[in-house]
Amino acid sequence: MTDLSRRTIIKGTSAIGAAILPATLTEKIARADSAHNQGAGSPANAPSGGAGVSHEAPSTTYLFFNTEEAAFVEAALARLIPKDDQWAGALEAGAPNYMDKQLAGAWGAGERLYRSGPWQPGTPTQGYQLPFTPAELFRGAIGAINKELAQRPFAKMSPDEQDNYLKSLEAGGKDLGGVPSDVFFAHLWQCTLEGFFSDPVYGGNRDMVSWRMIGFPGAYASYYDLVDQHGIKIDRPPMSLAQDAHGHIHMNPGIPARSP
Amino acid sequence: MAQRLKPVDVVTIGVGLTGSLAALELAKAGLKVVGLERGAPRYTVPDFQSPAIHDELRFSIRKAMMQDNTKVAVTFRNSSDETALPIRRWGSFLPGQGLGGSFVHWNGQSYRAQVVDFIYQTHILQRYGKKFLEACGPELTIQDWGVTYEELEPYFDRFEYLLGVSGKAGNIKGQIQRGGNPFEAPRSREYPNPPMKEPYFAALFRKSAERLGYHPFPQPSSNLSRPYKNPEGLDLQACVYCGFCERYACEHFAKASPQTVILPALLNRPNYELRTNCEVQRINLDSTRKKATGVTYVDAAGTEYEQPAELVLITAFALSNVRTLLLSGIGEPYDPWTGKGVVGRNYSYQTTGGPTVFMDESININPFMASGATGTVIDDFGGDNFDHSNLGFIGGQYIAGTMTGGRPIEFHPTPPGTPEWGLEWKRAVAQHYNHTITIVQHGTSTASRLNYLDLDPTYKDAWGQPLLRMTFDFPENDIRMSQYIADKVVEIGRAMGGKVVVRGGAKRPYTTTVYQATHNTGGAVMGDDPKTSVVNRYQQCWDVSNVFSIGGSSFPQNITYNYTMTIGALTYWTLDAIKDKYLKSPGPLVQT
């Protein structure tokens, strides 16, 4: 039982009683199954139309988030950076997977966070002063949100309702199990940005979609002959850190446990 | 019980820029030198190589090359009536850790200080008078350095040739040079290498600055414009403008760092020993407390050692230098209420913050084609390069069309009015990413009696010793300076063709959460008077003559420019004093 991945559990669960899962999540899982690995790591550039960039949410094996947490995260990220007719959003880019792996690993456990007390709120210029690790912060805050929304889960709200709820978190003033809601929102947003823009080796930015969208060539590293050709348009496809000669991107085996 | 080791001639606390340079000079002079570095050993090959080195998340966001703040953090407050709390994640400044220190992840921006910087108080009083300075702020405590530019010029020159700085001279022996910075202090000769290539954003800035009557020049860079062999016989390569420079190490041997320009000449010397993962706890003093006997440190396995030494050089990052003095009881700690004491006094920073210029979408900026020091600069508003008589402040900033990369987790600008997230935000990012320029304002930080460093009464490091406590906010003088210049920069941005120019300029309160600069200065300042300085003009401690505290901690107030070249020049200057004077007759080099 301990070896079963979250996805296996979800699949098994959905077979015996999909009613207990938020509908959007099961739908996404079903879609993801058919889209699994489609176009992953394809070097083809997509200057317009998003060709070669999957608009389906990828299948995710969650190591950190439980089912309810994952349902909130997937739905929230789909609003924070939505997909459009041209480019995938944070959900389709795999940002929930990125977030899950970060929280399951060293960063979630408080890597690079000075953790000795005593604890007190401090001023905004003193920065983060809560005793929670990122893993504790996300778990506590999402748990509080899901409890508050037990009757009408976030994932079941309309997009407008979801946006309004996220705005209420962003505005602060709400306590989420000891985490001020604006602090949680700031973490959620930063993590979403990272999952959208970081190298695909970390499990987000699938197909380097965000890099194609803005025209960032990625880890590609020599512009000696181009830097003084002013205003040229760079059309070459972006490159990941872990891309091999065939354009496949290999997930870094050291993630999530590697320390810096 | 500490294990006592065999005595050596010299121990350096820290092996970054100043520690490796000091060790090289003194090892060449035949002394037995031990370098104690708190971080791990690391080398261009294999540690800085592709593909892993171009990882924005790991290096820029998670700050993998920075001081391990889970072990040693800094506490902070804006003013002394607040309770300082730990900076739990680095933000505003990023001290490096590991062999080579911050001199590995630096950008390579390589300016000299100016003539008047070293005689700042004398110059300001002469030009504007005492009343003017008092009106700028009665709390300001600017002072002279005790050393002059003329004395340091040979050492600036030597350090530039060690690094292979790429640039264009603006003033050779008093003759203004076309294409260089006409405001720069006279130099004895041209830079060792020609300027870097000029990216588009820099060219747009240059043309606009020229049109407005300013004097643009190529930013001096320690990322090299061509292959170069330095005077130590070490080969550097030409920079390829990969856009992964600040917060990263260079894989190409193209950025000057201890690993490229110093360590290969040092590490194979039989009379030098490098010990990494060693955390110095304190400098030990004899019963007179006038002489150091060595240092106590703890290695990675937790074993404590006493390393006796004739000469102790504190060669860490500025903040660590000050903390080491405080933990060792060297010099009288500064008391902001009485104004007495010196250690921790005149802590200064850097006043930064420039505008964002949104260009037309037909203009491809390609911000990712850059190095850490590639751009065009004007110094028309630097230091005291302009008349302050009617301005009500002292100091200034250089203005630079320099971008150090287009790494998208950090750089995804949107114009004012754009929502913070959602579909509109996403479309704005896609629309503006490649058509936006950031301009840098970078300048003086005026020392104030209100800003200082001391030991925190509450928070401890991993070994149970007090953390350093920083009390800092921008003096109103510096806000006025920065805001005055912000208006000038908006004009430049508009002249560049900016459709929207978002005004820059510094504001109070200073915050630790937003990156500004890793140019923390002061706290163990140099000078001619032991009442207002910790070290004399040779960076020798007034109170303990066989201890020298070297680096940014010696600056009485901070200058307009990025401080690495000035630190390098001061280090060479001090080492010549040690070799030529101190070793012949150990004792105070300046009598009180």
Task: Explain what you see.
The complex is a heterodimer of chains A (260) and B (592). Chain A has a two-stranded antiparallel sheet. Helix content of chain A is 38%, strand content 2%. In chain A, 42% of the residues are buried. Chain A contains eight helices and two strands, in the order ααααααββαα. By secondary structure, chain A is mainly α. Chain A starts with 5 loop residues before the first helix and ends in a 46-residue tail after the last helix. Chain A has a domain at 6-35 and 56-112 and 130-214. Chain A is globular, with a radius of gyration of 19 Å. With 592 residues, chain B is of the alpha/beta class. Chain B has one domain (3-582): FAD/NAD(P)-binding domain, CATH 3.50.50.60. In chain B, the strands form six sheets. In chain B, strands 1, 2, 3, 11, 12, 13, 14 and 24 form an eight-stranded mixed sheet that branches. In chain B, strands 8-17-18-20-15 form a five-stranded antiparallel sheet. The model of chain B has no long low-confidence stretch (mean pLDDT 97).
Low-confidence stretches of chain B: none
Number of strands of chain B: 24
Shape of chain B: globular
Distance separating the two termini of chain A: 32 Å
* Shape type of chain A: globular
Number of E strands of chain A = 2
Specify the structural class of chain B: alpha/beta
Nearest-angstrom radius of gyration of chain A? 19 Å
Beta-strand portion of chain B reads 15-25%
What gap, in angstroms, lies between the N and C termini of chain B?
Answer: 38 Å
Going by CATH, the architecture of chain B would be 3-Layer(bba) Sandwich
Q: What do we call the CATH topology of chain B?
A: FAD/NAD(P)-binding domain
Order of helices and strands of chain A: HHHHHHEEHH
Number of helices of chain A: 8
* Main β sheet profile of chain A: 2 strands, antiparallel
Multimer state = heterodimer
Main sheet summary of chain B:
8 strands, mixed
